[in-house]
Amino acid sequence: MRVFVTGGTGFIGAHVVRALVARGDEVRCLVRAENRGDNLEGLAVELVTGDLGAPDSLLAGVRGVQQVYHCAADYRLFARDPSGMYRTNVDGTRNLLVASAEAGVQRVVHTSSVGALGLHANGSPADEDTPVALDDMIGHYKRSKYQAERIAEEWARRGLDVVIVNPSTPVGELDIKPTPTGQIIVDFLNRRMPATVDTGMNFIDVRDVAQGHLLAAERGRTGRKYILGHANLSLRDLLQVLADLTGQRAPWIRLPHWVPLAVAAVDTRLARRRGGRPRVSLEAVQMARHKMYFDCSRAVSELGLPQSPLREALERAVDWFRERGYV
């Protein structure tokens, strides 16, 4: 099968590409001219230079393929000018779906995020149908992913065969930037995390996320959302697993939320004035006030989403970051 992947140089996308190559597909990847291609090095894939903001490059990428995996996203929790995030995540999604419809693509898997889903105020696990609105979104990343998801749903109603997947918090190797979650692991390994806050997330092996994309293409229902997740863990529990793996001590101090909120507010304001990025993002701290726990049973029952041991994924992440000089 011939497939087209956006975001193949990123964390999730690189694993999706590897899963497709392992399956024997002919893989074509959209790559920006300025992008690092480290995560695609050595893979038998065709590279198409282009951008989500350049419709002609997208049409060239999707022409002649049967499936499209839209994994690309601008994933930042701080941006002095957020307009670029909306151009990539919202306008770019629209451009790709227009091109896919024009080229007669058989199925599109749109990578959204659990950040675009609703949450329960009491911290109990939410699912794909938990009520949510744009006003519930904290920060520009979540808002842009929420809007992109609405565009995907609109195109599904218009007849394009689009399936939506909402990865939770993937962990594992190839987290090249790293992602905010990968940065937590790096900070722990570098002993830069002296305390925690009362928060939690749903975690999953990034390899299972990749398989979830392929399973969504094979078994998912048009216009339907699937949370690709596994284990709900508090931040303290996550750090304890890392401590067990590394022999390092997990932080035992738990701060009230107002402390990191105050630090992040000052740090973010200084970053806007001086340039650069804040060490502590205000959006990240605001998100941490809510436990992002999810019920992933739909993807498990309908798609057959794997639920590999999280400890093994964290061990691979630790080894990968160490081997590549992040520590």
Q: Can you describe this structure?
A:
With 327 residues, this protein is α/β, with parallel strands linked by helices. It has a domain at 2-174 and 204-230 and 295-308: Rossmann fold (3-Layer(aba) Sandwich). The protein is 43% helix and 16% strand. The protein is built from 11 helices and 12 strands. It has helices at residues 11-23, 55-62, 83-103, 139-157, 180-189, 206-219, 235-246, 258-274, 282-288, 297-303, 310-323; strands spanning 2-6, 26-31, 46-49, 67-70, 107-111, 162-167, 169-171, 195-196, 200-205, 225-228, 231-234, 253-254. The strands form 3 sheets. A 7-stranded parallel β-sheet has the order 3-2-1-4-5-6-10, with helices on both faces. The chain has a 3-stranded mixed β-sheet with strand order 7-9-11. Helix 3 links the parallel strand 4 and strand 5 (107-111). It is globular, with a radius of gyration of 19 Å. The termini are far apart. The mean pLDDT is 92.
